[in-house]
Amino acid sequence: MAQETHESAEHGEFNVGDMIMHHIKDEHGWELAHGLTIPLPVILYTQDRGLEVFSSSHIMHDEVYNGYKEHEGDIHRVTATGEIDESVKVWDFSITKNVASLLLSAIILLVVFFSVRNGYEKNKGRAPKGIQSFLEPIILFVRDEIAKPNIGPKYERYLPYLLTLFFFILINNLLGLLPGGANLTGNIAVTLVLAVISFLITNFSGNKHYWAHIIKPTGVPVALLPIMIPVEIVGVFMKPFSLMVRLFANITAGHIIILSLLGLIFIARNLGGTGTGLAVSPLVTVFALFMNGIELLVAFLQAFIFTLLTSMYIGSAVEEHHEADHGIGYEGADPHH
Amino acid sequence: MAETTENNPEQPDDEAQRNLLKKATEKTTSYAQYSSIAFQMLGTIGLGVWGGMKLDEWQGNERPIWTIVLSLTAIGASLYLFIRQLPKY
């Protein structure tokens, strides 16, 4: 995602922080390289003018179009003199770079998995072929190593969600590593939505033991209940919160590290001239390649962890409870005894 | 997992690879669990402090009594939630 940075350095006044933020953040229009931007539709809603749609190429270089101007990533209404008019609330439903990347990943997932499904129809009773044989072990891994051991006997009804989650995060992590790719899974709004879906599924499948533990934790004195119930409720919300923050932080941090490494080249050039810049670039390239390799691993790891933790949370909500199953040894380890 | 290894008695390589995968999965599972708990503790304490500060601001307290009480409660709560999620041995 970082190769295009070579071009984005303004001579003499190169700011690494700005460069990094520019690559991490969402934008109107998809900048593949400096000077090569794919315009995307800008969709705005304002109370006085209603819905308006135009191309992002009109507002690319701080230009004013149709009374709108982009300022630090947000689109504002401007007055006749060109000042930003804060009194008009602009609802921005644009197909931004992240939204475009999301739609692209959805198309890729649909194409890939429909071909896998067709593979199972065509090769019924025979060995899998092509992309089907590449994905089958991963699908089985999610089923046998993630869903089954963590959810238990009722794992089957959650598999469609867990598989979707796994492959959605994986494909978007990988797309984010491509040069010019969008940082979708490093966007906290996207991870928030994923976490909220996991939260809803967990709590809607919670059985009576799960809720009993929250409303009346076993072995807690009645006097402590006013404290313990809020604590348990906070705990319910903190689980998806940790899912959201981890994915966002890991992906964003990985991108920042690679971008900072590449930024070193330009810092060196600004300090000691073109020669110094050229001198450090081989070393930086090696480090950046190494980090890219790590990021490749992280892309798989984070998809795995998100799915794993989701299935653990679901598992804790649907498990049939200890007392009958495991006897005293289990309860004895409970902290509130 | 024992069944899968028994199914391939003539393929020691395959078996070794499966064991390796199993070990890696176990390690990642515990890493995932503990790092998740860390984020949960951070979130719990953050929520307590934020809530306390908001309450103090709302009541216009001279001494940040809610911030103190709620942040301490949140630290206790985060420890409780942490211990509850430890594997039960």
From TrEMBL, chain B:
<keyword id="KW-0812">Transmembrane</keyword>
<dbReference type="InterPro" id="IPR032820">
    <property type="entry name" value="ATPase_put"/>
</dbReference>
<feature type="compositionally biased region" description="Polar residues">
    <location>
        <begin position="1"/>
        <end position="10"/>
    </location>
</feature>
<dbReference type="Pfam" id="PF09527">
    <property type="entry name" value="ATPase_gene1"/>
</dbReference>
<feature type="region of interest" description="Disordered">
    <location>
        <begin position="1"/>
        <end position="22"/>
    </location>
</feature>
<keyword id="KW-1133">Transmembrane helix</keyword>
<protein>
    <submittedName>
        <fullName>AtpZ/AtpI family protein</fullName>
    </submittedName>
</protein>
<feature type="transmembrane region" description="Helical">
    <location>
        <begin position="65"/>
        <end position="83"/>
    </location>
</feature>
<feature type="transmembrane region" description="Helical">
    <location>
        <begin position="31"/>
        <end position="53"/>
    </location>
</feature>
<keyword id="KW-0472">Membrane</keyword>
